[in-house]
Specification:
homodimer, alpha+beta, 3-stranded antiparallel sheet, 6 helices, 20% strand, globular, DNA-binding
DNA sequence: ATACTTGCAAATGATTTGCCAGTGT
DNA sequence: ACACTGGCAAATCATTTGCAAGTAT
């Protein structure tokens, strides 16, 4: 982080601590709220500014799993691809390896190097598909 | 439309005309602007209200192809699934049949009945992948 | 006649920007 | 010292809601 000419401040550290403390992607507001009291709160505008900076450095990414606010997560080993149910809105996070065959097929058919880390695959989950009929 | 107990008004007709006149999904604002003068303009709030009503009746759908506003399109025969390039933001619209194998593989692996009509498949298109190196 | 609709204004939610005081290096 | 940051307020963008006046049936 310092290696990018970036300074280390309390607010900055808190953003990263919140992201690493959470086990799912979280919103800027959750970070500013200190994860409901588990960490000190900080200013929402600064959180957004820091998230943007950290994202440009490649330390953070965000995704959109539905119609709510953007959700942020740290980059690195824990990378996940998402499936979200249209009906019950349940989120399934899978390791990229599990998605390899799907990505390969998309590449073969369309020439796209796809990833489902930003936008999820939307669809009916098995449970809701059964319930629909 | 009338069959759902819905009244036919000028504003309502304009929303549908705009959607059918466009050959790609368009934003509520483009509709309210009368497609840059090609149709009469109308009130943005009413456009949103009508889009919501029409969507509940299943006559209209919306999608999110990137970070801009939601984009609306009429339902029916012209249904398309989308791929969007992360780098150049080009949008490819493909007929559902072309995506059948991908959807089948996702179903087999994850039990999801996926569709890429609301959120697109994001990835690097062939051209940008080559350029990135 | 009556309930559904519109248009305008104001509210809301998410995110960004301006500015000046504070602080890391 | 100096440029980089934080906090607070205000601006912006997309969308929703309240309400009085207008209109389809």
């Amino acid at each position: 982080m310092r290696s990018h000419g970036m300074r280390i401040s309390a607010a900055r550290r808190l953003v990263l601590e919140a992201l690493y403390a959470a086990d799912t992607p979280i919103s800027a507001e959750q970070i500013a709220d200190g994860l409901s009291g588990r960490l000190p709160r900080s200013d929402l505008a600064s959180v957004y500014r820091n998230l943007e900076t950290l994202e440009q450095l490649g330390l953070v990414r965000h995704c959109h799993l539905g119609h709510g606010p953007g959700l942020y997560k740290p980059t690195g080993a824990r990378e996940r691809e998402y499936l979200v149910c249209d009906s019950c809105h349940a989120v399934s996070a899978v390791a990229p390896a599990e998605m390899a065959a799907v990505r390969a097929l998309i590449f073969e058919r369309f020439g796209y190097e796809a990833s489902f880390t930003h936008f999820p695959i939307l669809g009916l989950c098995a449970h809701c598909a059964r319930a629909e009929t």
